[in-house]
Specification:
about 425 residues; alpha/beta
Length: about 425
Amino acid sequence: MQSARRYIHPHNYEKHAPRVSQVIAAVAKVSCKHGLWLVTHVYNMPKKYLLWQNGVFMKKLGFGTMRLPLINPEDKTSIDQNYFNQLADKFIEKGFNYFDTAYTYHDKKSEGAIKKALTERYDRKDYILADKMPTILVKSGDEYPMYFNRQLERTGAEYFDYYLMHNMGKDRYAKATEFGGFEFAEEMKKEGKIRKFGFSFHDDAETLDRILTEHPDVDFVQLQINYFDWNNKIIQSRLCYETVVRHGKPIIVMEPVKGGTLANLPKEAADLLREFNPDASPASYALRFAASLDNVFMVLSGMNTMEQVLDNTSVFDNLTPLNEDEKEILEKVIKIIEKSVEIPCTSCGYCMEVCPKNIPIPQLFGLYNNYKINNNFSNMYHNRIIYNRGKSSDCLNCHRCEKNCPQHIAIPDNLKKIAAFEK
């Protein structure tokens, strides 16, 4: 098998994969009843490659499209399509092919951007696409086909390689159970419109265990995992990870850099990492932490600059596990972050979906966290953030945002802190 290793290269894997895929697929079926893709250790193949279900190899880094480049930073729909095309081209040129989108991203414009960047410019076999059912919008089981068909039309993809029930937790899982969401997805899978079906998850490990127990046939689970949240009692990254591993499911990692928090560290933490290794970016430690975990076959990263694409792809082209010294340094980094970042917001925007006053909560929290790090509250940025939108003091304390927040942040209480700076 060693002689086959030299053929596993991003630019020629399709040509040579048939020579090794039959043997690998056979072992994959033995190693996991779901045909687990993590077979690299069996063949001593590079950990950056994994066997996809059609015998095509893919690397562990996925392009997340929640935070695409914008022409106007104040308008999430103003996607810089030309620049995104360049980022996607470079990502594919580097041998990566997994893209992740969702119905609600960028105020429902992300899927259209995927169509322009990928579907209209590449053969369907050249990229792997994941999309998600907008569970927050579904009001009855009759609406599943409507949203699903709309997603197929928006992306132009004909089928989805990976499809997820979006943001499962106690509340949305109850609705998905009532409306038959998992059953609908299985039907689409039988029709060939979905290749692999799973769900993304933001809740406690007990709820996750219940979902996997009641739906043992799901193909994978998408979890929020990063070194900062690993032992967090609310996020429960480690406990959720261990639950999925116990059920024998492959894992996709989201928020490995925690919405940029682990890339833009407080100066003390950044200096600590730079002193240890001047050539490694702060984000690279976070990506390596997630990618090195057993059962993880994909790590998503939202990239909106060429620098991020080049840095992240370089990390995964030379992927190595964290050593003990690096783990010890990250423990110090965690303590530093905990002292300076008061609000653990990832800027997912789910709170905005239900805010009756249209308060730009993620941006205001980001501004406040910067203030806590730099001891400088910018009134200029504050006024730009709330322009034509609600301000912190407009909060009605309805707590709808809290119920929709994957990070379980006490949003109204934190908005009061920001309201104190209003002029």
